Amino acid sequence: MKIINAVFYKSVSALTGLPEETFPEIVFVGRSNVGKSSLLNSLTGVKGLAKTSSTPGKTRLINYFQINGNIYFVDLPGYGYAAVGHAEKAHWGNLLVSYIEKRRAIALVLVLVDSRHPAMASDREMMAFLEYLDRPYGIIMTKDDKLTQKERAAARREMESFSAKAKFIVNYSSFSGKGKAELLAHFEHYTC
Question: Pfam families this protein is in?
């Protein structure tokens, strides 16, 4: 898949605000501060398209980005640690679960996992949830540039042991772009 055009479309705080299900949706999900927004910016080549922050919990809404006029990339709030109150975190959790359960337009879910901390309990729970719903998902091991080759291989083996039903696993660096071509090639199978 080649990305020619990427624009912010809309943000929603409730399922009632979601756009019509006219385009396939590729969903970015993962723990807070795993690099969902950075990955989105890297893939599209549009710096600042998705807001990034070193503070966990920056993404607080479901953010839609229209890609090539006929696909949505959907950036979801992170799960796990975030610098917000319990009530807001509970709202995010309910929103995330309801969206993934009910949205028919979801073509693929990308589960982003920090390469330095693969297979955390919250990531395994997300994969189990997606498998229960029979949602196709791929795993993106982010922050790949922060590992040595030996650490990268060990993290990959560990991730593979927990993700037998993942359609693919891609090691990705938003900093260098490593993994970008491979990931975009996978999208071809889910956006036709």
Answer: MMR_HSR1
Of the pLDDT bands very low, low, confident and very high (cuts 50, 70, 90), residue 88 is very low
Report whether 59 belongs to an annotated binding site.
yes
How far is the C-alpha of 175 from the C-alpha of 154, rounded, in Å?
A: 21
pLDDT given at position 112: 95
Quick check: is 87 in a domain?
yes
Known binding residue 40? Answer is: no
Q: Is 63 labelled a binding residue?
A: no
pTM: 0.89
Distance CA 35, CA 188 (A): 22
Q: In CATH, what number is assigned to the domain containing residue 82?
A: 3.40.50.300
Q: Which domain holds residue 107?
A: 6-187
Q: Is residue 192 part of a domain?
A: no
Q: Known binder of ligand: residue 43? A: no
Q: Is 77 annotated as a binding residue?
A: yes
**Cα separation of 184 and 129, whole Å?**
24
Quickly count: other Cβ atoms within 10 Å of residue 45's Cβ: 12
DSSP annotation string for 37-67: HHHHHHHHT-TTSS---SSTT---SEEEEEE
Task: Look at residue 191 in the predicted model and tell me its pLDDT.
Answer: 83
